[in-house]
Amino acid sequence: MNVHLDEDVFAELWTNAIAEGTTVAPHPHLQQCTECRLRFASFSSWLDELRTDAIADFDEVVPAERLAAQRSQILRRLETTERPARVIAFPKHPVESPRPLAVRRWIAGAAAAAFIVGLGLGQLLNLRDLSSGPSTFPADRMVDARGTSPGVVPALATIGNDEEDLAALEAASMPHYEALRAYDTFTPRAADFVTSSRAPR
Amino acid sequence: MAGSPGREADGIAASAVKALQAEGRLPEARERYAELVARHQRRATRIAFHYVRDSAEADEAVQDAFVKAYSHLSTFREELPFEVWFTRILINGCLDRIKARTRRERWMTSMPDGPGGERDFAERTPGYGPSPEAVLLSRERRRQVAEAIARLPDRQRSVFMLSHYEGCTSREVSAMTGLNESTVRVHLFRAIRKLRVLLGEDAGRAREK
Q1: Same domain, residue pair B89 and B17
Q2: Which of A154, B67, B69, B111 has a 20 to 30 A CA-CA distance from A195?
Q3: Across the interface, do A67 and B118 touch by the CB < 8 Å criterion?
C-alpha cells in the first residue's frame, strides 16, 4: 500500500532545510510518488509566497526614500554621540569669575573692620550729642512720660484718672449703628467691674 | 544569510571601525561604519517592522540599534558574525519597545486608524503594472498573511521571521534570540504548521463567502 506523506512531513523537511540554510533534502517517497511531489511543490510555493508577501508588505510601508532618510539620521546621531556634551550656561549671561580666596578674605576682613569702626564712631557721636547743649528735636514731636504726645491726643492727656479714661474709651467704642446698641447694653462694661470691685462686700 | 559573501566584508569593516575608534580617528570610523549601516539597514528595518508592526517605531528601533552597536563596538568579537551580533541588539531593543508599548496601552485607549496610518500610507502608494484587481487581491492576501503571522506566539513568530524571511540558520537564530538550537527548530516547525492551518482556514472562509 502506498501511504502518502502528510503536511507535517513537508513542514519537517522545510524546517530542516531552513534551519540548515540549505535546499530541501530529497525524500525517497517524493521521488516515487507524483501526487506527493505535486503537493510538496504546492507547499513549497506557498512558503515562498509568504516570504515574498512579507517583503512586499515591508517595501510598501518603508520605501527607499525613507530608508535613505533613516541612514542620514543614523549618521547624524553617530556624530552627535561623539561630540562632547554641550554645557548650557545657567544663568544665561556669564557671571564674573569668583575672586581668589585671599582677596575674598581681605574683603571680608575689611567689611568687618569697617562695621566695628562704624559702630564705635556711632556710639561716640551719640554720646557727644547727648552731652552737648539742648536737644534740637521739635517740642511738638516729643512724648511725655505717660507715653502720650500732647500734639496727637490732647483729649486723653487731660483726663485725670483711670475711671475717666475707661469711660472715655467706652464712649469712643460705642457702636454707631442703632441696631447694635441693644446688644451693646447687654455687654458688661469695664467701668462696672471697677465699680463692683471697689464696692464694700 | 548563511555563507553570504557580505559576511566577510562585514567582519573586516567592523574590525576596521573598531581599530579606528581606538586610534581616535572618529570621522573615518563613522565613514567606515556607514558601509555597515547601508548593508544591514534594510534587513534590520524589516526585522524591526515585523517585531513592532509600526514603521515609525521600527525606524527608531533601527536607529537606536545602529547607534548602540557603534558605541559598543569594542565589545564585538570577530568570531561571531557582525549581523548576528547586531541583530541581537536590535531584537532586544524591539522587545523593550514592545514591553513599553504594552505598559502604555494599559493606560491608553486605542485610536481608530486615521489618516497617516500604515494602511493609509500603503493605500496611497501608487501601483505600477498590475491591474487594480490584482493589486487588491494581493493586498488582501498579504493582509491575511500578516494577520496569521501576528496570531503566532511571540517566539514562533520571531523564529519563523528570522529563519524564513531573513534566511538565518537555526544556529544564528539561536545566537540572536538566546534560544536553544533545537528549540529554534521546534518553534520553526510549529510556526509553519500553524500558519498552514491558519491560512488554510482563511482560504476556506474566503471560498465560503
Answers
A1: yes
A2: A154
A3: no
